[in-house]
Design a protein that fits this description.
Alpha/beta knot; globular
């Protein structure tokens, strides 16, 4: 029997999280670039974040055409939300610097969604992306995304990164409502684990 997915949150209907999704009017335009292997990742947060925002676009791919990238980079001041190593000669900005130096309505931020290994490959395959000025986040607290292994204590899920980014850039508390999505996702995952444990115990009786 074919699995039925929710058309809004893109999760299985029995795992639908639409009731937790806020409707947020963001000034800064976001574009999510998702690695193809992340599409069916039930623990992913990118689409849930995208579905909560008014000024948001979503593309799936590992390597993008010149036309696609030109369309993404033109007409607005475009940044990439991604850490820059010391070896990379790219401009970097804090959220405060972006806020004070650029009109927010004319800003666009590209966000890569995937594991560190996958997103590094995306940058390698798309030099135009790698050359974009970067916005650097300084996480104020550890990630609460405990259902998926993170690279280190400073790593954030896509949802948490967007929540921090927009809260800081737009100086708005409305984005804290995205925490409800994270809480619902974590609670659902933990309930699933508890159910599996109960079934295993029942099977041993």
């Amino acid at each position: 029997m074919a699995r039925v997915y929710c058309t809004k949150c893109h999760r299985l209907e029995n795992l639908c999280l639409c009731s937790a999704l806020p409707e947020l009017e963001n000034k800064v335009e976001l574009v999510f670039l998702q690695h193809p292997l992340e599409q069916k990742q039930v623990k992913g947060t990118a689409w849930l974040t995208h579905a909560s925002l008014s000024q948001s676009h979503f593309l799936v791919g590992e390597q993008f055409s010149s036309d696609e990238l030109s369309h993404l980079i033109q007409h607005k001041q475009t940044f990439l939300l991604y850490p820059a190593s010391e070896e990379e000669s790219v401009m970097t900005y804090s959220t405060e610097e972006v806020q004070t130096q650029f009109p927010l309505e004319n800003c666009r931020v590209l966000i890569l969604d995937g594991t560190w290994k996958k997103t590094k490959k995306m940058l390698y395959l798309n030099p135009e992306l790698a050359a974009l000025p970067r916005i650097m986040l300084q996480p104020q607290q550890p990630s609460e995304y405990r259902i998926r292994k993170q690279k280190n204590a400073q790593s954030l899920s896509t949802l948490e990164a967007v929540m921090a980014l927009l809260s800081e850039l737009e100086q708005s508390s409305q984005y804290h409502r995205l925490q409800n999505v994270m809480d619902a996702l974590v609670a659902q995952h933990e309930a699933w684990i508890e159910m599996e444990k109960a079934l295993r115990i029942e099977g041993l009786k």
